[in-house]
């Protein structure tokens, strides 16, 4: 459903050098289409940015008929924020952010993030955004002071000794995940299992979290925790500020590792991270290679465990999803624990019930 364009006028001024009062026109849409969208895309290109189709709300600020600033929101992520070069320093970024925050709050979003280039830190810091982590190419900021560290502290579990971690999506939870977690738990005194919280997967985040919790309930010293909005997948990582899109997976991977190290590992004293081998997916294999390069110099050992197989093939969540879509429960049964099998059969019955 597309919402109608909304317009209103606010007062502004050009700044101390050439001060004059003027009326800004603020236009918002969910999202823009047609001519308005084409103007927005062209404006972003002039600013060296690309338009990101994954937006739920956009703001355009006009001075008379001239587009001078814009910004968009995708859930909790702010993106595509730009101000015309000769209008910077007039508070237009603050105008855009005010509109974005107003809409976010109206829709129940209380915690916002933005991904940008590191040199933009000084632009957003005075406007209430705080650094979470950075790499040479990417900066992650949030609008809550010290929010990342406090979030990680809220996940802390009791126990001492060697602390390990596994980061999983579990879409859905398989016997391969169970094997990885069981082996990892046996190799440390306390294990955190971080389940990605974003809802961009085939199965809802709440369901994935519950399947993992039930699936490892019998394992001692294993603590299943959400990642919040701090660790995200490539499906969510914004690329509007990246000129060479082919570099986006590498940049997302580097930022993901920086967040894991600076937020989760540092706060929770994690010194060991476990991953499964990846024989089929080049992207995941590259991620594992990046783990081996990035984490050990920062005091985190990487342990790669051989994935288990069923019927001559590695067990994977993608394989389970493919069999589920075919309705092949006999084929997927050897790949998943009881808790997942019950969930999948019930979901299938509900989706294919005769009304």
Q: What does this molecule look like?
A:
The chain is α/β, with parallel strands linked by helices and 355 residues long. The protein folds into two domains: 3-110, Aminopeptidase, CATH 3.40.630; 150-350, 3-Layer(aba) Sandwich (Rossmann fold), CATH 3.40.50. It has eleven helices and 15 strands. The strands form three sheets. It has an eight-stranded mixed beta sheet with strand order 1-2-3-4-5-6-8-7, with helices on both faces. Strands 11-10-9-12-13 form a five-stranded parallel beta sheet, sandwiched between helices. It has a two-stranded antiparallel sheet with strand order 14-15. It is globular and about 70 Å long. The two termini are 26 Å apart.
List the topology elements.
Layout: E1 3-13, E2 21-30, H1 34-46, E3 57-63, E4 66-74, E5 77-83, H2 92-106, E6 113-116, H3 121-124, E7 130-134, E8 139-142, H4 147-154, E9 163-168, H5 175-186, E10 190-195, H6 205-215, E11 222-226, H7 248-268, E12 272-276, H8 282-294, E13 301-305, E14 309-310, E15 313-314, H9 317-325, H10 329-332, H11 338-351
Parallel strand pairs: 5-6, 9-10, 9-12, 10-11, 12-13
Antiparallel strand pairs: 1-2, 2-3, 3-4, 4-5, 6-8, 7-8, 14-15
Task: Write out key terms for the chains shown.
355 residues, alpha/beta, Aminopeptidase, Rossmann fold, eight-stranded mixed sheet, five-stranded parallel sheet, 11 helices, 15 strands, disordered N terminus
Please outline what is shown here.
The chain is of the alpha/beta class and 355 residues long.
